[in-house]
Amino acid sequence: MKFKLLGKSGLRVSEICLGTMTFGEDWGWGVDRKESKKIFDAFAEAGGNFIDTANYYTNGTSEKFLGEFISAEREKFVLATKFTLAMRKGDPNSGGNHRKNILQSVEASLKRLNTDYIDLLWLHAWDFTTPVSEVMRTLNDLVSSGKVLYIGISDSPAWVVSQANTLAELRSWIQFTGLQVEYNLLNRDAERDLLPMANEFGITTTAWAPLASGILTGRYNKDANSGGRIKADNIRLTPENITIAEEVVKIAGEIGAKPSQVAINWIRQQSNSIIPILGASKTSQLVENLGCLDFFLTPEHLKRLHKISRIQLGFPHDFLRSARVREIITGGTDNLIEKHRK
User: Fold this and answer.
1) Nearest alpha carbon to residue 190 among 19, 309, 286
2) From CA 269, how far away is CA 301, in angstroms rounded?
3) What is the end-to-end Cα distance of the chain in Å, rounded?
């Protein structure tokens, strides 16, 4: 396991992040404490130090388990948790990104995690009601108090992140160092605005659902005979997605790897600043998926996967990249300009 710097900070995080939404059985699925501990230990033994959870996960059980697991070596781990999602039905202030909920969520997470500080605090999802200035001022106060060391933002529009970090830079507040998005071979939407934005601001991206709810493991055929929770998620089981999954399986067979490892490595090799979040319901699943660290895909394999899963960037991206527009912008000198940035 190697390490990456988190955004523009000096914090070292492992190149794979352990997702712990499966820790706890409160939602009718997931794993018990014993298996959760085995998964956690397997990740730590592989050299991983980056752990991702949320206050909402399994009604707080995920945080409670992690509080126990890291207690003996708290300083070793980079522990990330989240706020935003409502913890009590019928109470409008038990969720959202306003100051009251951020502060009460952090205090509750600290108790469940049995720790004095959170290494990385994620805003879980944009609520479209709280001013950006209120969010950033509150997060800056938490960092100043020592209860939070770094901040990140998940599942939010690129314009929100851009506005937030620009405002924070102007006022000398803490800036987002991490971005969390869904990103995999079946969902490359983040390539339109979110990933380019993260690259411009020097933000590290963590990718959730790297296996697209299991479809990229090769377990599901064209008849969509699937089991478990994925069975109801028919929107993913389209002919196009099955074709992509079949190409992943084909490449895995050619190189003697598992389809899941191929899918994860496609993400890892898109950018040096993207970290896959791997969750698991069995220790064997995590160990198998960590096998992605043993190899890299060839340029030819990457080209095949890129081609079969390519998306249309749409306006204004395709318009601005067209040959005619580039010619007008540069006066016909586009091919003479060295582009040191993407």
Assistant:
1) 309
2) 11
3) 27
Contact 23, 70 (CB under 8 A): no
Mean of pLDDT over the chain: 94
Distance CA 80, CA 127 (A): 20
Please give the pLDDT value at position 231.
46
Query: What are the domain boundaries of the chain?
Result: 3-311, 316-342
Cis peptide before 316 (omega within 30 of 0): yes
Q: Is 56 a catalytic residue?
A: no
Note whether 103 and 148 are within 8 A (CB).
Answer: no
Q: Name the pairing type of β-strands 3-5 and 12-14.
A: antiparallel
Tell me which architecture the domain covering 3-311 has in CATH: Alpha-Beta Barrel (3.20)
**pLDDT tier for residue 225 given thresholds of 50, 70 and 90:** very low
Quickly tell me which residue has 């997470």 as its tokens: 109
Q: Which of 57, 150, 183, 220 is catalytic?
A: 57
Selection from 305, 299, 187, 198 nearest residue 243 by Cα: 305
Angle value at C-alpha 32, between 179 and 45, nearest 5 degrees: 60
Unique residue bearing structure tokens 């074709």: 243
The 10s digit of each residue's pLDDT in 155-209 is: 999 999 999 999 999 999 999 999 999 999 999 999 999 999 999 999 999 999 9
**Residue 328 burial by CB count (10 A; 0-12/13-18/19+): exposed, middle or buried?**
exposed
Q: pTM for this one?
A: 0.93
**Backbone torsions φ then ψ of 204, nearest 5 degrees:** -80, 135
Alpha carbon separation from 94 to 14, 26, 98, 106, 249 (Å, rounded): 32, 19, 10, 12, 44
Rg, Å, the chain Cα set: 21
CA 301 from chain centre, in angstroms, equals 23
Distance CA 162, CA 145 (A): 25
Burial 244-283 (b: 16+ CB within 10 A, else e): bbebbbebbeeeebbbbbbbbbbbbbbeebbbbbbbbbeb
Residue 341 one-letter amino acid? R
What pLDDT band is residue 237 in, cutting at 50, 70 and 90? confident
